[in-house]
Amino acid sequence: MRIVLAFDGSNDSMSAVQAVARLPFREKPEITLVSAVVHPTFDLPQSKGAVEAERHAIEAVEGQLHQAMQQLEPIAARVDRVAKTEHPSHLILETAEDQQADLIVLGARGHSALSRILLGSTADYVVNHAKCSVLVVRPRARLAGEVERPDRKPSLCLAYDGHAPSKLAFEQLVQYFQWPPGTRLHVATMLERPSMLPEDVVYDEELMQQSRESQTQLIAAAQEQLANLEITYTVRETVHVGAALRNVALRVEADILFVGDTGKTGLGRILLGSTSRYLLHHVECAIWLARPKRYGNRP
């Protein structure tokens, strides 16, 4: 597995490093730390002073990169770094394509006054243009924070609707990781219902039953890999799928919410579904946005 991890020395990016260092990878990944160095002369011609400023800026970030690499080396097959003076989002995406990365990891900011997650312009751009899966880590998420209970097992939540994107999210959850015994996995299926229908009335009982059967079949197909996990399920109708999934992730104290993504527009821009977009900006835990790799053919 190849991972590109965006790093700028901030607390947000350190949270991302800590999160990756704690993940139980099935095989040791190859990790590339990416730092885009920005200084006041970024847009000026490359005068002697500008070149000198760039050199000092890169030297300043090198020490932080070294510390981050030390945290990642025990769990990685290889850790490299890329530090250049370039627009951050462009450098992250270019490096991911050069490396044919399976995953980009980003640190998000905290909450706004309206309890909305602040991705930041770089993270938002990368999420919308990445050609592979993306893991967004919250600074106060349990996955990135201090270990309060060393014996606490991971808690995962899978948003599942039976379609290909959510199946891919499940495949990556199983394929990339060797979750320790006792890990909790909650599979949540949310079915849209008319807003005018009374809450105590079931809109489509047949679809709810089909969804329960689909969940059971999904887990049965990976029974060997998931044998030691504690698996629970939710199937419910709701008028707001995103908000309902967020509430489930809160209830099960999820460390990571795995979500499938949609495809691309004709302009090559990733088309985030309304549910994915809502979750990216509102869930408190880390969120794994699963995508198939869409890099062009390499010579």
Structure at a glance:
With 299 residues, the protein is α/β, with parallel strands linked by helices. The chain has one domain: Rossmann fold, CATH 3.40.50.
Structure notes:
Mean pLDDT is 84; it is low at 110-118 and 263-271. It contains 8 helices and 10 strands. It has a single domain (2-290), classed as Rossmann fold (3-Layer(aba) Sandwich), CATH 3.40.50. The protein has a 10-stranded mixed sheet, sandwiched between helices. The protein has helices at 11-22, 48-72, 88-99, 121-129, 164-175, 205-221, 241-251, 274-282, and strands at residues 2-6, 30-36, 78-84, 103-107, 133-137, 155-159, 184-192, 230-238, 256-260, 286-290. With 299 residues, it is of the alpha/beta class. The longest helix is centred in the first third of the chain and has 25 residues, at 48-72. α3 packs parallel to α4 (121-129) and α7 (241-251) crosses α8 (274-282). The relative contact order is 0.15. α8 links the parallel β9 and β10 (286-290).
CATH architecture: 3-Layer(aba) Sandwich
Question: What is the gyration radius calculated from CA atoms?
Answer: 20 Å
Distance between the termini: 21 Å
How many E-type strands? 10
Count of discrete structural domains: 1
Helical content (DSSP H or I, runs of 4+) = 25-40%
Shape: globular
Biggest sheet: strand arrangement: 3-2-1-4-5-10-9-6-7-8
User: What's the quaternary structure here?
Assistant: single chain
Low-confidence region ranges: 110-118, 263-271
Helix/strand structural class:
alpha/beta
Mean pLDDT: 84
